[in-house]
Amino acid sequence: MKKINLVLLLALFSANAIGQTNTYLRLYANMGVQMNSNNVFNTNLNSNFLPFQLGAGSNYKFGGFLVGTEFYNSNGNIKNNQYKIDYKEFTSTLYVGYDLLSSSDFAIEPNIGFFMKTGQSITHELQNNNTQAYNIGQLGISTSLTLTRFNHSGLSTAIKIGCNIPLGSEQAWKNGTDDSHTNFSSNQITPFVQLNIGGRIKLKKKRHHKSDFSLSKPTLEPQSEEHKVRNQETLLYTIVYPKQNAETILLLHGGPGVPNRMKEVTNLLKQKYQVIYFDQRGTGLSNCPNGSYAMEDYISDINAIAAYYELDTFHIFGHSWGGLYAQIYADKNLSKINSLFLCSPSSGTNTTWKETEKEVMLYNKENTSNSKWLKMGVNSMFGALGSNKSYRKLFKQVLKNYHHNFQQIEISDEELAGIHAEPINKTRREIINYKPLTKIENPAYPICITYGDDDIYGKSKGEVIDRFPTAKVYDIKNCGHMPWMHNKVEFEKIVTNFYKLKKGD
């Protein structure tokens, strides 16, 4: 008992000491089985049996690291016509671990720690009614791997696989009556499998006053302002380049989940128009606490921004996924749009999105080495499981591939810091589940569609062109997916003509 109390004391001390800087407290109940190869004490019983575990645990998570404690009781028996052994055990563990994924949905956590165990076996000789008790106490190392899934409200289910390995010489059973040593040895390794059910609580930290946003804010250009626009629980980070008595152009970046302020486009447009850029929900400096990424949510975000800036109508410039986002919005809000500029837009929702993904995958494969392509596959897999870091590595390579046939660019980690797995994964599912977009025959506003002749899309881009029969369509020569960087002169001519910009504006 003294050893068990020591473990619990250490656990409580660690929780209190580290809790001041932790971000999450996780509480859970556990149940499972352990694979015992127990001593049968001179009986003819089978030594292998599966005691049932039932207990609870908790851990604090700070960054990727966690420290925790758990305990469980194990009970089981083995018997035949002559003998019966009742087994019970109490085990407490203090452990540390690391989450391999930076995700709000999943966690993969290898753990290592120390366990203390007290066990008791009671043998029954059924024919003679003889009973003998044996006790054991053990200290050892516990190793495990926990796979956890969280839902939107923080509730969790997890599978934990591990084993307990005793240390030292105290591995023999003692006589239960006088605590004397016996010649009966204990099993050396005890594997176990658990199902954990619980939840996590986000802990608030005491800190000096800082911005509401978790990332460092970008350096604002002269004559620009930043505003936080609330749409229910979501707080959208916006940058506006005000211009009195001018119409407004709303910029929609690509991804989904990959912020890009498109400064070259902004600098071109802001001379004549008021320009508004925003980080889409869950991306960059915009949060999304409820984890909802339905297309209706995206549409309501634009409406919230329009209401905040008192816009009855506005122009939309959308690039890549932002171009599809613009199409989805236009499908529902024809009367609010002054014009659409679809710059290398994604081709469509539902099955069209899947076809687009195949085209983009093929483009990336053709524009990178086999080793880098393999790394992209690994990062994509871990990103799909919820790893922010993996997606940042993936998109760093994707951007390099997009510039492969043009000038190479330097991509800093700071530029990628606004990429998060949740909006990428959840938005993708919502795009696939969204209805196919309808054809807009005679819109009351002008539409421009541009693609580079070396763009990332294939045949599917024909669906965009067919969807907007009145649009002006440009195939820009010597250009990829980023026309303002790949063929700046030709792109600026198209933008200048469409928005009726003048030199000197």
Automatic annotation (TrEMBL):
Gene Ontology biological process terms in this record: proteolysis
One Pfam entry for this protein is Abhydrolase_1
Region Disordered, residue ranges:
208-227
Keyword vocabulary terms for this entry? Hydrolase, Signal
- Write out the GO MF terms: peptidase activity
Superkingdom in the source lineage: Bacteria
Q: Supply the SUPFAM superfamilies for this chain.
A: alpha/beta-Hydrolases
List GO terms (cellular component aspect): membrane
Leader peptide range in chain numbering: 1-19
Q: Does the keyword Hydrolase apply?
A: yes
Q: Where is the AB hydrolase-1 domain?
A: 248-482
Task: Please state which protein family the record places this protein in.
Answer: Belongs to the peptidase S33 family.
What protein is this chain from? Alpha/beta hydrolase
Look up and give the organism this protein is from.
Answer: Flammeovirga aprica JL-4
